[in-house]
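Quick one: co-fold with magnesium ion.
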Amino acid sequence: MKLKKLLRFIPFYKVTKPIEEVIVKGLSMDSRMTESGDVFVCMRGEDVDGHQFARDAVTKGAVAIIAEELIETSVPVVLVNDTTRALAMASSAFYQCPSEQLHLIGVTGTNGKTTITYLLDEIFHMHKKKTGIIGTIQVKIGDRTFPVKNTTPDALTLQKYFHQMRQARVNQAVMEVSSHALDQGRVYGCDFDIAVFTNLTRDHLDYHENFDDYLRAKSLLFAQLGNGYNKDREKFAVINKDSPVAKKFIKSTSQGLLTYGIYEEADIKAEDYTMSETGTSFVMSTPIGSVNINSPLMGLFSIYNMLAAAGAAVLAGVPLKTIQRSFEQTKGVRGRFEPVRQGQDFGVVIDYAHTPDSLQNVLQTVNDLTRGAITVVVGCGGDRDRSKRSLMAQVSVNYADRVIFTNDNPRSEDPKQIFRDMTTHLKGSYEVIDDRKEAIRKALTTANTSDIVLIAGKGHETYQEINGVRYHFDDCEVAREILREMKERPS
Ligand SMILES: Nc1ncnc2c1ncn2[C@@H]1O[C@H](COP(=O)(O)OP(=O)(O)OP(=O)(O)O)[C@@H](O)[C@H]1O
Ligand SMILES: [Mg+2]
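Sure, here it is.
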């Protein structure tokens, strides 16, 4: 592709040398990965500034540099006011604007993103669409899956995934959009057709300066909806009306709006709901009619997730009957309120809850399901928001009968410090067993009939990260193994 063509969505730039004849074979933002024929884009990260590596990239064969500052080098330098935007626009241009050719749904909010993307994927699958997912668990393109590092990848990788989806004839894509990604402009250049908002509570405050900054980052998805792309298709925001910040999200977009909720007036509503240990039932009223929903997904938060998914699916033209059937048959998502059954006479649930709010939700849900005692096994991650540690610990002792604190990815931190942060001002009883397997063993071997053991925080994760090394660890696998041992050697 000609460099000039690659730059066609960047309105103003200056060049240090003529670029008419420059042909581009690829894009790169990491000089270690730069190949001959690439354009190197200098990105300013938190720790390093890509401008420092421009000349390395030229040595590797870069044919041009996109930068914010002048760089002395033999190849043309394209000067732009914002390389983040330039990378997103150039990446989209390089892959022939793939997101414009997909029906793309973005889901943002503190909790429920992964669940909603999977619910939507199941609905669209049933609606005979070929689907793609980009999110926390993995990237899925048709039938193929790829492991991921971040919930939302960088702009270049993202556009490449969209391109691969186009090649695989995927026509429906659903993507989790994290607040980091929005803040860092990784999704400029994505033509979202529908943006879904779930809820907003304190999380990632290690990254964002304060709650307002977090709210602003999340609302960018709605502010950017329909800006400058495929104007032929209508764009919609799907918003949780029961969220205290719903109004701010509604105000941030000028596109079509569909609201959902249980308590507030909303376009899609759940009425007459009931919840049990086998699932949830409710009447879902929508602008195109009402249906009864009976789903194996448990808890009030699952109803919210179903309403959000139904909202996006209705806007995408899926009939209510299909949505109803999909919610009835859903298998749920790995590590999201996932039951572990090995014939034991008490309940075991694995859940990814790793924020005070989601932990409280899950514990309340568990509470609704049993008259027996509740044990929670939980920890807080190292090198992440410290302010949520004491809150998660307090929620645990408030809602569970027995609390075992344990490791959950201590990363570079001393686990003892994490436990101190959790328990210094804690009121209530708890024990600390730092080895996660031993903590789970203690919880399972001391459970009584009808109790529920909630193993929280890791969900689908298959590792424990200690000092930069990821050791294999899978809550579900460990729980199954211990339950099997208990069956073989009853006490
Ligand atoms: N709508 C909801 N409201 C509150 N809590 C929820 C909701 N949906 C799920 N949860 C809880 O949050 C946990 C994480 O759910 P999920 O993975 O779907 O969220 P996510 O937004 O993708 O999270 P992350 O930002 O970590 O990727 C679940 O295990 C569950 O405990
Ligand atoms: Mg997620």
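If it helps, The pocket of adenosine-5'-triphosphate (ligand 1) is lined by residues 111-115, 136, 151, 176, 198-199, 301, 304-305, 336, 351-353, 358, 361-362, 459 (CB under 6 Å).
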